[in-house]
Structure formats: C-alpha cells, structure tokens
Amino acid sequence: MTSPSDPNLTKPFEPATNDVVELTVGSVVDRRYLLKREIARGGMAIVFEAEHLVLGRRVALKGLSAAVGDLSWGRARLMREARALDMVSGPGIVRIFDAGYDSTAPHLVMELLDGRSLDSLLAVRGRLDASTACAVVQQLCASLRRVHARNVTHRDIKLANVIIAPDERGVESTHLIDFGIASFGTTPVGLPKLTRPGEQLGTFEYMAPEQLFAEPVTPQTDIYALGVVLYELISGEVPFPGGHEGVFRAHLEGKVRLSLGGHLGEQGRRFDRLLDRALAREPADRFPSVDDLADAIATEVGFTSLPLGLLRSRRGDSSPGLQDVRVHLRAPYVAPVRIVRASGAPVDGRTVDVSEGGLLVLTSGYLEHGERVNVRFSLPTSGRVVTLEARARWGRAGRQSAAVGLQFDSAPEAHLADIRSYVDLMREP
C-alpha cells in the first residue's frame, strides 16, 4: 500500500508481519487504484470507492478491516470470495474485475453499483407491494440458478446483500453481492477449507435450521433465505425475530410465524402455503430448486416477473405527517455518516442518497421531526469529509434502523457544487 506521492510507487513490498494493515482513503493500492472514499465497513472488511489511475474507471475495492486480526485467514477468505464471484459471473451478480495483494492488504476490485440496497428501500417504505416483492425474488432466483449450477451456495442472502441498480437503459434489476462466506460443494483446487466444524456463518434471522445448527448447507439453504426475504418485503418483518436466541428457540421449538393474511387477505393465504414450503424445517421438504420457487410464485400466487421501478421517487416514503420537502435532483450515494445531536450524542449510520438540499440516511437512532443536528460525511466527488448543519425533515422507524431525511440548513457553495457534479454524473445515460 503506497500513497499517491510515493516516489517508490513501483517498488515491491514484502510483508514483515502477519498483522492486517487497514487501507485508508488517499492510498494507492496495487499501484493502480486510488482510494477516494469509504463506502461501507463490516466486521471483516472495508469497501471503498476507488479510481483506476490509468483508465479513470470508478470501482469498488474491498480490503480487510484490522478487526480481522489474522492476515492469513482474512486473505484466504477474500480469495475464496474472488474465486466464487469469478465462477458465478453473469447478470444479477456483482462483477469482479481483479483480486490481489499489496503489502499486507489483500483486496478485491468489483463493479461499483450505483443503486440502493433492499434494506434501505424497506427502511424508507416500510414494506413493498406483493407484486414488486415477487418480482425481486424471481430475479434473485434467476441469478441463483447460475450460482447453484456452479455448486456454490451463497449462505448470506438478506436484504442488505441485494442492490437494486439500473442498467444503461435505466432498467432496474437486482444484483447479489457479498460472497464472503459462500460455500463450495467441492472446494476448488488451491483453496483451503475455512469453515470449522460447529462454526455458524451467516445472519441469524435469515439462517435455515441446518445453517443455525452448523450442519452442511446446500442450495435449499439459500431457498430458505429467499423465503425470509419474500416474507420480509411483504410484511416489513422477518418470520422469526430476536437475533440468535429468538431464531434458535423458534427452530428448536417449532414456532409458527405470523400469517400474511393480515397484510394480503385471501391472497396472503396463498403466500402462506408457498412460504410453508420455502421455510420448511427439513431441506428435503423445500422447493427442489430456485426455478421451482420462481415457478410457484407465478403459478400459485399469480405473479410473473415485472419491471421493478423501485428507484423512482415516490410520495409516501416518509412517516405519516412528515413531508419530504427536498425538491433537488438526487442520486444514490452510500457512505458512512455521523450525526451529532444538540446534546452532543452521536448517531451513526450511512447515507442512501444525496442532493444539494440534503441527505437520506439510515441511522441507529430515530430523530425527531425538525431536530437540528450536525452531520459529518464525505463529499461524493472529492471524498473530502465535511460537517454541515442540518435538520430532520421526516423519518420512519424501521425494524433494525431508522430512515431520516436531512435538509441542509446552510452549506458552502463549494460543497454544493461537489454534490451537484456528482448528481449530474449519475443522471447521465
């Protein structure tokens, strides 16, 4: 890892320790990729927007977080993800361009998806209409058909790992991301087996019983997660909430989830019958394949895949009585954000979209209508971190996070020009 001004830019570097050196904004990775801004951070990895210094291409670069601790393990996990993405490459799967090492910083280089994740859309809207929810799941089935044909199980299908993004024609589609814990039916030559006996990997609310109890996973494990996604998109809730303890007890005691009849009436009962099979306790009792699930959505509940239209601006995206007053053009934009309340208490989250009038953010805490705050985030074009005064114009408390519309009270013209240029870029055909 080198800085852009380093005169030894091409000098190779051999790591002296097994410690992870965390990537930082402004560094150049592999002599080609300038890290412009941080997009997201998890327990294992950090994702940046980066620029290819020769081609000028905007990409997403994923590197290890220092929290991983063990460089060898983290590097092996990243390289397995690279192999999985290369094996299942095609429509509906985030594309991988490159993978490699730079000093102590193994990394993946992927396409930068300019869209919104399903969890952010649901946080704003509460739930989706049944036809749109079905279209989303049917598209995911089409993508997973190829994944499963390559003998790969994703093992972490959830709303946060599905991005809705438009193509060059403006047609929206689903994109499955984060194959970091994907399971290979047969481990490819040259890759170590990393999952230890009894180890749980995944997100508890989406885990099939066999995954929760650390038993072997199969494509039916992903089908279970798709059932959870369908249920959540329609109801706004997961079938079995409560994290590890809640899901563990539900599976152990055979608890019955709430019916969708309260949301969809008679149609909800048809969905319940479909979900009974998708969420069956035993893998053999679920749909044999994702094609069978997609067909059942079409034949048993009567929905065929339709255009999504989820990214178009909608009235009603705010809580009742709180009107979204932003009138500026906006564009999807994901970056960490820190909101500081008048009391000095910080509220962390991430941006969803940006305009010169304000931000849409997902936060760990709900803000009151009209509440004045300071918001710290990176500008989308320059990557410069700034703090602006803002106020909460509307909000909605979600299952795991709150969606809040922030309106800037005042901002320097240079900051607004940065945002305008980004929005203009994103709106180009």
Overview of the molecule:
This protein has helices at 71-87, 118-125, 130-149, 209-212, 219-235, 243-253, 261-264, 266-278, 290-300, 413-427, and strands at 28-29, 33-41, 45-52, 58-64, 96-100, 107-111, 116-117, 152-153, 162-166, 172-176, 183-184, 331-332, 336-341, 346-355, 358-363, 372-378, 385-397, 402-410. The two termini are 35 Å apart. The protein is 28% helix and 24% strand. By secondary structure, it is of the alpha+beta class. A six-stranded antiparallel beta sheet has the order 1-2-3-4-6-5, covered by helices on one side. A six-stranded antiparallel beta barrel has the order 13-14-15-18-17-16. It has a three-stranded antiparallel beta sheet with strand order 7-9-10. The chain is globular and about 60 Å long. The chain has ten helices and 18 strands.
Helix amount: 25-40%
Q: What coarse outline follows from CA principal-axis ratios?
A: globular
Tell me the strand order in the biggest sheet: 1-2-3-4-6-5
The stretches of 5 or more residues where confidence is low (pLDDT under 50) are: 3-16, 314-325
Helix/strand order, N-terminal first: EEEEHEEEHHEEEEHHHHHHEEEEEEEH
Query: Got a strand count?
Result: 18
- Mean pLDDT, as a whole number? 85
Largest sheet: 6 strands, antiparallel
Number of helices: 10
Strand percentage lies at: 15-25%
Radius of gyration: 22 Å
CA(first)-CA(last) distance: 35 Å
State the secondary-structure class.
Answer: alpha+beta
